[in-house]
Amino acid sequence: MVVFNANDIATDLEPAHRITDEFMDNVYRLIPDDPIWHNGHFFWTDSLASLGLRYGEPGPNHPRSHLAAALRWTGHDIDVLRESWPDPAGPPRDIFGLALPLDPKLEMGTWLTEAHTRYLGAWRDAKDAPPADLSEIDLISGHFHGFGWGVVEPDGQGWARRLGPDGSATLLLRVPASCSVSVQLDGAAYPQSRFEALSVSVNGRSREPIWTGFGSGRPTLRLQIDCNAVTHAEGRLQILFSMSMESKSAADPQRVAFAKLAVRIG
User: Fold this and answer.
1) What's the CATH number where 166 sits?
2) Distances (CA, A) of 213 to 105, 155, 220
3) Which residue, 141, 158, 187, 215, is the most exposed by fewest CB within 10 angstroms?
4) Taking all residues of the chain, what is their mean pLDDT, rounded to a whole number?
5) Beta carbons of 238 and 202 less than 8 angstroms apart
C-alpha cells in the first residue's frame, strides 16, 4: 500500500492497514498450494501461436523453482525437498534462499547433507502432526515426505522417479501406531535395471522386500511392516532404499527408478 499525503495533518492509517491486510489474506486463501505456471497464460500461448509455435504444458520433470533448475545437475530433486518440508512454518530460507548464480565456493555435498539432516529433524520434531492422507501420496508429483530422491524422467511408458545419484533415497511415513503397513513401489521400465541389488531398511533394521514381475521388465516391490514394528516406532517409519555397494561402484551403474508408490494400512 502506498499513501500520498501532502497535507501537514495527523492521519490515522490503521483502518486502511486493516482493510488492506484483510484483502490480501483473502487473496492468499484463494491461491492454490501447487504453483501455477504463468507459461500457460493465454497471452503467452496466443503469442506463440502467432509465431507458428505450439505451447506444451510442462511435465513433472520440469523444475518448479530457479534453485531446483540451477541444481538439477546434482541429480537431486530440490523442489521435492523444499515443497514437502515437514515444518508447518515452511522451509528455512538459510537453506533454500541461496543467491543465484551460485557461489563457486559452495560445497554442494555439505549443503545437501545439511539439508537432508535438517529435513529429517523437522519431520521428527513435528510431534503434533497428524498422519498423512495416504491416498494423496504420489511419487511423481512429489506429494510425499522423504529426501535423497532423484529427478523425474520419462521411462518409455510414462514418468518415473529415480533414486538419488548415490543410489539411495529415504521415504518417511507417519501412520497410526496400532496398525500394519504395506508399501508398494512399481519399478520403471528401464532395460538392465538392477532392482535385485536394492536393499531396504525400516528404522535402521534390514527388511526383505517381496519382488514380483521381473519377467515382465517392470518389477514391483512389496514391503510389509507388521503392527508390532509400527507400534515400536510409534507410527514413524523411516524407510531407506539403497543399492548394494557393488552396484554403486560399478563402472556403468544401471538406473533404478519407480513409477508409482502406494501405501496402505491394515
Assistant:
1) 2.60.120
2) 46, 17, 6
3) 215
4) 85
5) yes
Give Cβ neighbours of residue 253 (< 8 Å, ≥ 6 apart).
167, 194, 243, 247
Residue 3 resides in a domain? no
Residue pLDDT, tens place only, 117-172: 999 999 998 876 555 677 789 999 999 999 999 999 988 788 999 999 999 999 99
Distance between CA atoms of 147 and 136, rounded to whole angstroms?
Answer: 18
pLDDT at 11: 67
Amino acid at 248: K
pTM for this entry: 0.77
Give a yes or no: residue 37 inside a domain. no
Cβ burial, residue 224 (10 Å; 0-12/13-18/19+)? middle
CA separation (Å) from 9 to 5, 6, 15, 19?
9, 9, 17, 22
Bridge partners for 261 per DSSP: 185
Q: What is the pLDDT of residues 167-215, one digit of tens each?
A: 999 999 999 988 999 999 999 877 667 888 899 999 999 999 999 987 7
Grid cell of 265 as nine digits: 494400512
